[in-house]
Amino acid sequence: MMRRWIFPILAGGLMAFGAYQATLLATPYALMQAALMKVGKQGPANQFAFAPMTTADNQTIVRPSPDLSYSTCVFDVSKGPVLVDVQPVPDHYWSVSIFDARTDVAAVRSDRDTKGKAARLALVKAGQTAPAGYEPVRVGYDRGLVLIRILVAPASTFPTIDAIRQKSTCKQV
Amino acid sequence: MKTWHRYVICVALGLIGGAAYAVQLVRGGLNDGLVSSGPWETGKSFGTVDASTLTRAKVALSGLLALPAQEAMYFTATRDSNGRALDGRCTYDVRGGTLDGRWWSVTLYEGEGWLVKNAAKRWSIPASAVAMDAQGRWSFTVSPDAQSGSWLPTGSVEAFDLTLRLYHPSADIIKSPETAQMPAIDRKGCA
User: Fold this and answer.
1) Which of A105, A165, B14, B49 has the CB geometry, 3.0–4.6 Å to A16, for a possible disulfide?
2) Å between B179 CA and nearest CA of chain A
3) Which domains are assigned to chain A?
């Protein structure tokens, strides 16, 4: 009697392991996809959306910081490299980070790295080349997210910072 | 019962069980395989290709778009310094000293990481909002009720966590987060 169940149980165990691995592997892609859709609603692809400061009433991404201003660009390099120009904000922490479809960071550049100068990145996939003057950032997937964080402290500095960050651009070549 | 019935039953149970176990682990929060300093816990591989499949899935759920450690470290406390779960109906003193990094802030979250509605419209205490004494010591109060001095409202939620962001942490903290001198969280009383 028991012998008839041995192979079905072994098959079930294999399936359990496979389903476990597949679920873990798929989770970041699924959550990133959901985030890209949410953020994508704020504007078209390959263009920055300049979000207002985060409050309890306008949260789009989990674990937001109410001290940082967030600007986002859903990028898509399928039709060509995407150029990211980040306008520096003097005397404030700022950084630009590139996240791929698996939630990994392809690159981060902060004011510490650029020594206060503008960050100029070219998001490229295999076979594409960065134009002169741009630092190439190789991405493994066509789509992902560019995120600029700027420290807004005290809160009263937001209008000044907002005017500066609006000069940052994200555009397809 | 036919042979294929047994296979269908076992394969179905396996698929459901394996996926459910993965979901349960991912939802279990960023608690295992992490480094702790007092009640604060952090990971060394957020947002990097070194992250394990499980860590990546957990970060994607509760810390999507987190930065790697050389840029920012995220320390999260779900318990006070005595090991009791943080409760939004209680009042806590958070006391710390100089943190070895460029800038820090402490934010209060509920659930998977959402800001809590409160009348004061305050969700975090940045370094610039606390008064430091001559030794660099500072403190603020976490409470459902308005407090004198720096106050972080809990909105009276049942459970919350505190996340301390440390931007541009020192090389020592990146290497050994457990040696970071993190703030103490002391429960004063509960409503």
Assistant:
1) B14
2) 24
3) 49-172 (2.60.40.1610)
